[in-house]
């Protein structure tokens, strides 16, 4: 029985046909209509009331970003953006996530991707994920950081290890579906004098994590950057795992250092939260705070088990079900019985700071 109704929106007739064919291959998905631009999409939503919309960004008459704003205002429902792999495409993708899109699919070779079939599994899985998204959380406005930013110090990459000497704590964060909005709620509310580094895995393909890091850096008091292989961790800086690579932190005599490698997927992901958290469990020089936020699946739960096994005083925070866009990853974390605090999204940054204060940092 087909029970997920999808509207496919793209200005290319070829792409509309290919994406529709891919989705129709799944027994639970029914493509009820297609649209050739944003205005056409709005008309089709009124007429067919789809459960999920796939929405191209670059279109004539009305582009995807403009259409998304109208959808979120007048017909709120899960929207998945289709984006090019260019920097502009990545920036617009991040903008769409802030506006309420639940996920995105990168086109492998431009606006008309003849090889879109390579994305078949991803397209189907993301539509299935979108169908269970809680729209009441998507529609909530992002809580803005009211603090006025001051210029950040420039990180000295030649001797960055000096800045890690005063802290004994490292913060790890893992998230997936709904993560970019969730990260904005958390990272932008961490204080500029945060006495610890932050390492982050957001399930995201190559080419998009740098735009995410740059966007968060503009909005945050702490520095945010895409992690680079070999660099040392600095207090008051958040490092986002680059898409398409596994991300670990390793001990060195100068302090914790970033290790990035192209490897197999774990839990279907690269980067994977489990890979990061398991590496944190091996650090001799750091106490740990682990945070699991919104996302589909169970990535991160095995890492939590390892952190708690090897460092019993690890603090684990999970996002409360009430604020998750998708409750999968936090639910899996809580099922380990190792979570110390279940916290609603707007309060996670405060919980992190309170845990640091409790440790005397």
**What percent of residues adopt helix (DSSP H or I)?**
25-40%
Please provide the ordered H/E string of secondary-structure elements. Answer: EHEHEHEHEHHEHEHEEEEHEHEHEH
Strand content: 15-25%
Number of strands: 14
Poorly predicted runs: 146-166
Inertia-based shape: elongated
Query: CATH top level of the largest domain?
Result: Alpha Beta
Q: Provide the spatial order of strands within the biggest beta sheet.
A: 8-9-7-6-12-13-14
What is the average per-residue confidence, as pLDDT, rounded to a whole number?
88
- The termini sit apart by 56 Å
Number of domains: 2
| Number of distinct helices | 12
Report the oligomer: single chain
The whole-angstrom Rg is 20 Å
**What can be said about the biggest beta sheet?**
7 strands, parallel
CATH superfamily of the largest domain: Methylesterase CheB, C-terminal domain
Specify the structural class.
Answer: alpha/beta
Mind telling me which CATH architecture of the largest domain this is?
3-Layer(aba) Sandwich
Keywords: Chemotaxis, Cytoplasm, Hydrolase, Phosphoprotein
Domain Response regulatory: 5-122
InterPro entries: CheB-like, CheB_C, CheY-like_superfamily, Sig_transdc_resp-reg_Me-estase, Sig_transdc_resp-reg_receiver
Organism: Streptohalobacillus salinus
């Amino acid at each position: 029985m087909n029970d997920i109704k999808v509207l496919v929106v793209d200005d290319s007739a070829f792409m509309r046909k290919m994406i529709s064919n891919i989705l129709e291959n799944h027994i639970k998905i029914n493509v009820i209509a297609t649209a050739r631009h944003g205005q056409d999409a709005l008309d089709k939503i009124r007429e067919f009331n789809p459960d999920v919309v796939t929405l191209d960004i670059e279109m004539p008459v009305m582009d995807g970003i403009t259409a998304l704003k109208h959808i979120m205002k007048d017909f709120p429902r899960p929207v998945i953006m289709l984006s090019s792999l260019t920097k502009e495409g990545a920036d617009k993708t991040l903008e769409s996530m802030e506006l309420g899109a639940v996920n995105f699919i990168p086109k492998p070779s431009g606006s008309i991707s003849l090889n879109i079939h390579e994305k078949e599994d991803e397209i189907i899985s993301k539509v299935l994920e979108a169908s269970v998204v809680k729209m009441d959380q998507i529609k909530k406005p992002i809580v803005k950081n009211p603090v006025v930013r001051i210029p950040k110090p420039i990180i000295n990459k030649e001797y960055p290890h000096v800045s890690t000497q005063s802290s004994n704590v490292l913060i790890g964060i893992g998230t997936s579906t709904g993560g970019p909005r969730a990260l904005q709620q958390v990272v932008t509310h961490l204080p500029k004098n945060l006495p610890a580094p932050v390492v982050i895995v957001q399930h995201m393909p190559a080419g998009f994590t740098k735009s995410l890091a740059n966007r968060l850096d503009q909005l945050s008091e702490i520095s945010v950057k895409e992690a680079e292989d070999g660099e040392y961790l600095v207090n008051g800086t958040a490092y986002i795992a680059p898409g398409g690579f596994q991300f670990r932190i390793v001990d060195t005599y100068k302090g914790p250092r970033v290790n990035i490698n192209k490897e197999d997927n774990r839990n279907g992901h690269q980067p994977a939260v489990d890979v990061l958290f398991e590496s944190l469990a091996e650090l001799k020089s750091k106490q740990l705070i682990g945070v699991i936020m919104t996302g589909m699946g169970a990535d991160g739960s095995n890492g939590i088990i390892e952190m708690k096994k090897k460092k019993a005083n690890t603090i684990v925070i999970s996002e409360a079900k009430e604020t998750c866009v998708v409750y999968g990853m936090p639910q899996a974390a809580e099922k380990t019985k190792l979570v110390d605090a279940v916290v609603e999204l707007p309060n996670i940054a405060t919980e992190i700071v309170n845990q640091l204060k409790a440790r005397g940092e």
